[in-house]
Amino acid sequence: MSAQSYSRGHSIIWADGAWRYEDTFTPVAIEGERPCWRCGRMPTVEGYDACLGHIDGVTAACCGHGREQPFEVTA
């Protein structure tokens, strides 16, 4: 199975047991966070998308980072 998603607008894929940036194949856990693909800002200290900040009562939110395609999973 393979999967494709986005991390702050950067395409990531599940391969070799880890999420990896598609352009460099570097594991996200090793390279770390990249700035937002659209606005160029890093997440806040609390881990929120800088584009949105803190939203009371919300457990997960994403600005979309300028990307229109949803993630997809293929077998």
Q: What do these coordinates show?
A:
- By secondary structure, the chain is mostly beta strands.
- The chain has one domain (about 1-65).
- Helices cover about 5% and strands about 25% of the residues.
- It contains one helix and four strands; from the N terminus they run βββαβ.
- The protein has one helix at about 30, and strands spanning about 1-5, 10-15, 20, 70-75.
- The chain has a four-stranded antiparallel beta sheet with strand order 3-2-1-4, with no helix packed on it.
- The chain is globular and about 35 Å long.
- The model has no long low-confidence stretch (mean pLDDT about 80).
What distinguishing features does this structure have?
single chain, 75 residues, mainly beta, 1 helix, globular
